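Sample A.
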Amino acid sequence: MCLLLGASGVGKTLLVKRLQNILPPVVGTDLTDIMAPRKITIRELGGCMGPIWSSYYGNCHSLLFMMDASNPTQLSASCVQLLGLLSAEQLAKASVLILFNKIDLPCYMTMEEIQSLLRLPDIVACAKQNITIAEISARKGTGLAGVLHWLQDQHRTRG
């Protein structure tokens, strides 16, 4: 199981739809299965469901945490959510991919600006999890092949 978490409006649903276009999907009612070549189940939970995210941690092998790179105010709030996720004992062994979406917008923050604002190197250094960071545009498809490759690698090693 891969959890896809992030604040409302960051592009989670679009990411899942775009990943489905890369490979043939099998869609369930509240989960999305992507065949890559093994089945990877992605459970997307919206930002408004943040208070109950922890009830879904149990079977989580990997975590996609999505942030809006064009919204500095929301980035700060999302960082607080991320810190909560990284400190959750049930997610201590999950691999984490932090996705900075909306890099296609003219007002997006550069990775250097984001790292400075969020103190991202400190977060990565202190986390128990293996963390990878990527910039993407779910709308234009930029970086999605890398997301798929990361998912395949994580779920190949989890057997």
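Sample B.
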Amino acid sequence: MSHRVAILSSHFSHVMASEKEAAHAATPSDSPTIFDKIISKEIPSTVVYEDDKVLAFRDIKPQGPIHILLIPKVRDGLTGLSKAEERHIDILGRLLYTAKLVAKQEGLEEGFRIVINDGPQGCQSVYHIHVHLIGGRQMNWPPG
């Protein structure tokens, strides 16, 4: 187990059998999330892109050969897409545009998938909005 995975695993005091269980156990709060700790470098990550607004890093449980998470550096109440307000338009657009830049950087010319999980039924387990960029393999439809 890599050092990064060990640190992240120890961060979670409860072990979930599935992402669905993790999503149903997660609750929105104003407390720092694991992503806040990645932004502040308290928890290491493999960063593939960073600017003043967005951080993109490799997912530790990839669902494809390439699986990158893109997060805003400031949460500003945007815990999930269903909580978006008009003031979030710029950062939402920035996340999607950055996903396009990272996809190109990662060589995903043949295509990729963007996923935003929202709420327990959407399998959201971290209440800090994030975009999954998944590629490097043929995707199927419906997604799940």
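B remarks: The chain has one domain: 19-135. The domain at 19-135 is CATH 3.30.428.10 (HIT family, subunit A).
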